[in-house]
Amino acid sequence: MTEIVKKTPSGAIIYDPSVIREITESRFRPDGWLHAEAVPGALGSSGRGTTMYVGNVPRQFVLRHFVRGGQIRRVARDRYFWTGESRTRPFAEWRMLAKMADSGLRVPRPAAARYSRRGPVYTADIITVRIPDVETLSTLLARKRCDADFWLSLGKSVHGFHAGGVYHADMNAHNLQIDGEGDLWMLDFDRGRLLRPGPWQQRTLSRLHRSLQKLRAQNPALHFLPENWEQFLEGYFAAAKSA
Q1: What's residue 111's pLDDT?
Q2: What is the DSSP track for 116-175?
C-alpha cells in the first residue's frame, strides 16, 4: 500500500495511486463520476451517511460521506471538530483499512479519503473499492435460513478480526457482509482502532447480538434463533482455543 497526501485549498486528500491513479476533489462528489447510484437497502445504513456506488464495472468504488449519529446529529450533521490532520476520521479510517487489507483481512481496500476544513470544523469523505457479490448479514437472514456450519464459520471469522486486534465501534448485522462463498467481510471502520486484546472484544460481541435481536423483534420472520447465537459463540471460542 502506497500512501500519498495531496494538499487542497481547503484541506487534504490521502490516496493510493496503485488503486486510484488520479484523484481530485471532484471525485468526492457523485457528479464527479460518469456513473453514480445510491447504495440500496440495508447497506445504505453503513456509516449512517450518504453512500454511493461510483465508477463502472469491473472496477467500481464506494463513496461515503461522513455523517454523525445520535443526538449530536441534530446540530452538527456532518461536521467534526478539528484536532489535527492525522486524527481526522477519514485519514484514520483510510490508514486502518490499509493496514488490515495488507494483512489479509477481508475489508474494503481504501482508495482515497479527504477532509475539507473551515475554521475549527471539517467535513469528510472516503472512497473504497467495491466488494463484489456481497450482501449484508441482515439481508441474508431475511432471505434464507443459514445452517450451523454457517454460524460456526461466522464466529470463527469474527474471532479472526479480534485476534488481529480489530476493534469495530459499531459491529452490527449491517456492517457484516457475506460474499457468494459464504465468507465474512467487515466494513465501516469510522472510529475503529487496532487494540490489544481486552474487554472490548466482549462488548463488540454483545453489540452484534443486540443488533440481531433487534432485527428479529422488528421482523419475526428473520432467520435468527437463540441456537444460532450459541453456534456463533461455539465457532468463536473454538477459534480462540486453537489460536
Answers
A1: 97
A2: EEETTEEEEEEEEEPPSSEEEHHHHHHH----HHHHHHHHHHHHHHHHTTEE-TT--TTT
Lowest mean pLDDT among 70-74, 77-81, 114-118, 175-179: 70-74
For the full predicted model, state whether its pTM sits above 0.85.
yes
State the first-to-last Cα distance of the chain, in angstroms, to the nearest integer. Answer: 27
For residue 209, which of 231, 183, 193, 178 has the smallest C-alpha distance?
231
What domains can be seen in the chain, in order of their start residue? 10-129 (3.30.200), 134-242 (1.10.510.10)
Burial 163-179 (b: 16+ CB within 10 A, else e): eebbbbebbbbbbbbbe
What span, in angstroms and rounded, lies between the C-alpha atoms of 179 and 113?
25
- CA–CA separation, 70 and 4 (whole Å): 33
CA distance 234 to 243: 14
Query: Of the residues 16, 125, 170, 188, which is catalytic?
Result: 170
Q: Is the pLDDT of residue 94 over 60?
A: yes
Only one residue has cell 487496532, namely: 194
Helix axes 200-218, 148-163, angle to 10 degrees: 140
User: Is 125 known to be catalytic?
Assistant: no
